[in-house]
Design goal:
It is a single chain. It is built from seven helices and no strands. The chain is mainly α. Helix 1 packs across helix 3 and helix 5 packs across helix 6. The mean pLDDT is 81.
Length: 179
């Protein structure tokens, strides 16, 4: 798009018209125009994606993928078989001595084809019969029963008229003027 803008600038078309034609903000068109005036077409050539570069080399990324394939238990998380972004950030720090934020670890995992907090595959030791039996027996006992159809409660949000109140109820004398 910047190259199209450069062609239009060379035709002496104003930045506001360039913005309209290319469907970009007027601010972007003026910034591009300034770059084009100062450095020509070369100044508008893309420099690649913005943001920080990956802190791990391609070789380290391969190692990280292998570590993730081994599973969390192989690296000290034995309570479950789930990679979380926080665990991956910790693993990167331990293995490569590089600090990654949780969000950075999430992006890195996606780049490697992993999804945080979702197991990649079922555990090899999973016993389908035991899972089914647990669901049918234990879960049926533990599960909270639903509320019965008639067991709802209702309360008035608007007080009744003073006539319908018992004589000793608060506000029973509401119809009497205050002195």
């Amino acid at each position: 798009m910047r190259m199209q803008a450069a062609e239009l600038f060379e035709q002496e078309i104003k930045p506001s018209e360039v913005a309209r034609r290319l469907r970009v903000s007027v601010k972007s068109a003026y910034q591009w125009h300034q770059l084009w005036r100062d450095g020509g077409v070369q100044a508008l050539v893309s420099r690649g994606p913005s943001g920080s570069r990956c802190q791990l080399s391609p070789r380290c990324l391969e190692k990280l993928a292998a570590y993730l394939d081994e599973g969390p238990a192989a690296h000290g998380w034995v309570e479950d078989q789930v990679w979380t972004a926080a665990r991956v950030a910790t693993l990167i720090g331990r293995k490569f001595h590089v600090s990654y934020s949780v969000s950075g670890a999430t992006r890195l995992m996606h780049r490697l084809g992993f999804s945080p907090q979702v197991p990649g595959r079922r555990v090899a030791e999973r016993d389908e019969q035991a899972v089914t039996a647990w669901k049918e027996v234990t879960w049926a006992e533990v599960k909270q029963p639903g509320r019965p159809a008639g067991a709802t409660s209702a309360s008035r949000t608007k007080p009744g008229s003073p006539v319908s109140r018992p004589g000793d109820a608060p506000g029973a004398d509401a119809d009497t003027p205050r002195s």
